[in-house]
Amino acid sequence: MYKILIKPILFLSDPEKVHHFTFSMIRFVCKIPLISGFIKSMYVILDKRLERNVMGLTFKNPVGLAAGFDKDAKLYNELSNFGFGFVEIGTLTPKPQEGNPKKRLFRLKEDQAIVNRMGFNNGGVEEAVERLRKNKGVLVGGNIGKNKITPNQNAVDDYVICFNALFDHVDYFVVNVSSPNTPNLRALQDKEPLTALLNTLQELNNKKEKAKPILLKIAPDLTDEQLLDIIDIVKMTKIEGVIATNTTISREGLKSSNKEEIGGLSGKPLTNRSTEVIRFLSEKSNKAFPIIGVGGIHSANDAIEKIKAGADLVQLYTGFIYEGPQLIKDINKALLKH
């Protein structure tokens, strides 16, 4: 029903306006008695064989919602009704920020892709914390970043603020230094500043009564040499693992008229590169750490390929927008067959 009836209507309007409209509709519909249960009955598959024990956490199934969709933790409870095994909120920053000027979100229909240059638009970490207090049992990851106005030499302070604020309210953390939409952010992926940042967070983590998993989200545009550095950094800092990958700045092979728009590209064009990065990290590290695979998952087979390449869990974003919630169910059904 989504692809035949709902998506064609939604795709007639500006994508950012549609995003906010969809949020409002899901929130409204899920408040109607029995509707949440009906949605769950359509999409949620509860089967012990789908459970994954990763990073000391138990995931009901290995299919999660990637960061960027529910930036401010406004809808994670309702979104879990569509069958997600976990939801990652954020990217959150210490202070609220508007993000980049609009228009900043573009569909590339011919390529089944999206370009965004949102710029970490969010209401700030404290607002999200208040909403996370209302968690009804959803496994939540917290994706954290720095404010645009914070210079890179002070970036660690922003990540520390977010880490401390979210610690009691999320199950794992994701350090985002790979978005192309905050000026100079990707410079933090260089070995020296990245190691310093992760060591600082790990020191804080280890002082807690019970440490929580910290993952690093990386860009698909890294070279093999840089990926080898990532493996070394994970080992040196003793963080839990990696999310591969964020959006790409590449525009190779695109057909859509919006292909020249500045920002991060997500969706089908990223499928192969994301899987290549997963396989490289898994093989070169000898499966030394967990990997969450994200990027261009538009079918159950795409997800299976990432798991075969070395991903322990997978996440959807653009595929969820193009394919709808049936994709989550299809992936979980395919995993049961495997």
Structural notes for this entry:
This protein has 338 residues and is α/β, with parallel strands linked by helices. It has one domain: Aldolase class I (TIM Barrel, Alpha-Beta Barrel), CATH 3.20.20. The chain contains 12 helices and 13 strands. The chain has helices spanning 2-10, 15-31, 35-43, 76-79, 125-132, 155-166, 191-207, 224-237, 271-284, 300-309, 318-323, 326-337; strands spanning 52-54, 57-59, 63-65, 86-92, 105-108, 113-116, 140-144, 172-176, 214-218, 241-244, 264-267, 291-294, 313-316. It has an 8-stranded parallel barrel, surrounded by 5 helices. Strand 3, helix 4 and strand 4 (86-92) form a beta-alpha-beta unit. Helix 6 runs parallel beside helix 7 (191-207), helix 7 (191-207) packs parallel to helix 8 (224-237) and helix 9 packs parallel to helix 10. The longest helix is centred in the N-terminal third of the chain and has 17 residues, at 15-31. The chain is globular and about 50 Å long. The relative contact order is 0.14. The model has no long low-confidence stretch (mean pLDDT 96).
Features:
three-stranded antiparallel sheet, eight-stranded parallel β-barrel, 13 strands, alpha/beta, single chain, TIM Barrel, 338 residues
Largest sheet: 8 strands, parallel, barrel
Alpha plus pi helix count: 12
Q: For the record, give the distance between the C-alpha atoms at the N and C termini, rounded to a whole number.
A: 27 Å
What is the name of the CATH topology? TIM Barrel
Query: Quick one: CATH superfamily?
Result: Aldolase class I
